[in-house]
Structures are given as structure tokens and as C-alpha cells.
Amino acid sequence: MPTVRSGPMIGLSAQLVVLAALAATVGLGGAGWLVGTGYAVVTCLALSRGLHQAGAIRLGPADRVTLARAVLVGAVTALVANSFGRPAPVGLLVTVSAVALLLDAVDGQVARRTGTVSALGARFDMEVDAFLILVLSVHVAPAAGGWVLAIGVMRYAFVAASAVLPWLGGSLPPRYWRKVVAAAQGVLLAVAAAGVLPQPWTTLVLVVALALLVESFGRDVTWLWRRRPATRPAHVPAATPTPAAPVMPTRTASVPSAVPARTVPPVPAPVAGPVALPPLLPVVVRSTVALPPLLPVPAPTPAMAAGSGSTVHSDWRM
Asked: Which of 1, 22, 166, 212 is the most buried (most CB within 10 A)?
């Protein structure tokens, strides 16, 4: 059975109550109801999904403050959507925006004091801030010019570019100046929406807001670009060179032109049959030669013959 998370449902109910209060006081047309209700439903679903992914059942103290800010931003959204059909109550719109901006400094302090700082709370706070800046830039754009929409769209353009360039989705180090610029966007847009300044000064305020935003985003993009992971080409194994067979040098006889060519005598044709060759050594003819004995051999005596069995022999040991 799925777990029912009460926080997002409480936020949805509160948003509907606020829209009803606006309809009863300043008037809220069909566009305001439609956009305000759609915003409340999307916020409820997104927050429920975030709690589910974080494994949390309920919102923390700081998240409740951010949820209250989200309800106020929903009211501003409904008023801006309603302003395209009828004049908007500028005083109420600016006041609600100012309260939402002031609460932006509260939820962070509550999270730090209660020890409930979380990735979900930081993301929830950032999304509420970004959407308020987008809504205010839409409200100011008809009077100041369409270029003001760049202030509200820049953050979403950065997120869309991260899907194409993955290195843009890297983690950024905490930077206090980034928080100052984000807070300044809402304040400067609220001042421009109030219409208390002459038009040239309002344009200058908006130019300053856009310049600060471009500088902040540019610094972050540059930081991510310098630390992007290097793309390595696919490894192609190098072919093992086959050793070439050794080439024996060819010796070319260099014959000087002054030396006459040697005449090779013709080879005689083989002659069939026996060929009489002259003897290389003199032939020695064997003959019987009588050589005198080196030592006189005595004649055997009868006693020697009788001792040896009538056999004459000699012993080499004697």
C-alpha cells in the first residue's frame, strides 16, 4: 500500500484556499484559476516524488517554510495569468512577491538551526525561486520589452543545455555570490513590477539584473568547461609490424674500362669412351726381395719342444 505523504497534500489544499480568497477579493478569472490550479497540482506531484526518492515521509521544518513560499508564488502566478485579461492589482502582486522573497532568507536559517539541511530542501527552495523570477519577468516583459524574458528563462535554458552537454550537469562548488545574484533578481524584478520608477530607470534596473545573471551563469559555465571530463578516442590497437626479410646486398663487380676483358677458353666437348690419362706418379712394380734377418733365430732344441707340446711360442713378458 503506497504511503500517503501529508505535506504535498496540505500544500495543494492551501493553494486552492488562497486562489478562492483571491477570487473573492480582487477577482480571479478563468485563466487565473486554470494556471493557479495547474501550478498547485504540479507542485504537489513533484514534491511527492521528491519525498519518495529521498525516502522521507514528511516535510522538515525548513521544507514547510519553503512550501508556504510556494503557495505565495502560486498566488503571484495566478495574478499574472489573470492580468492578461484584466488589470492586475499591482500592489497586491508586489506585496505577495516581497513576502515570498523575505521568506527565502528564513527557510535556510531554519534548516541550519534545526539540523535538517537536505538535498531535497535545497532543490525545492531553488525551484521556487526560479519560478518566481520567471513569473515576474513575464509580468514585466510587456512594458519593458521581450528581452526581459531572458532573466526568467536563463536558468531553464541552462537545465535544457545540460541534457545535450552532460558536462554542464557537473557539481558546482558553493558560492555566496551566486545566492546574492539569485536574491537580487527577485528584488529588482519586483521593483520593476511596482512601477515606482521612471521608465528609463526601470530599464536600467532590469539591465543590471540581466548583467548580474549573465555574469553568474557565465562564471559557472566556465568553471564546468575547464573541469569537463576529457573525451578519449576509441582505442585502436596498433598493427604489429611484420619484420621484412633481410635483403642481401648485391655486389656488382666494378670493372675499369681500361682493363681488357678476360678471354675465357672454350670448354672442350666430352669425348665418349675411355680416355688415357698420363700417370701422375711412377708405377712401382712389386718384386720379391730377400731381406736378411735382424736377429738370428736359434733352432729349437728337443727339450724346448718337449716342454711346450712341440709348439714354439714366445712370451712378451720375458
From this structure: 22
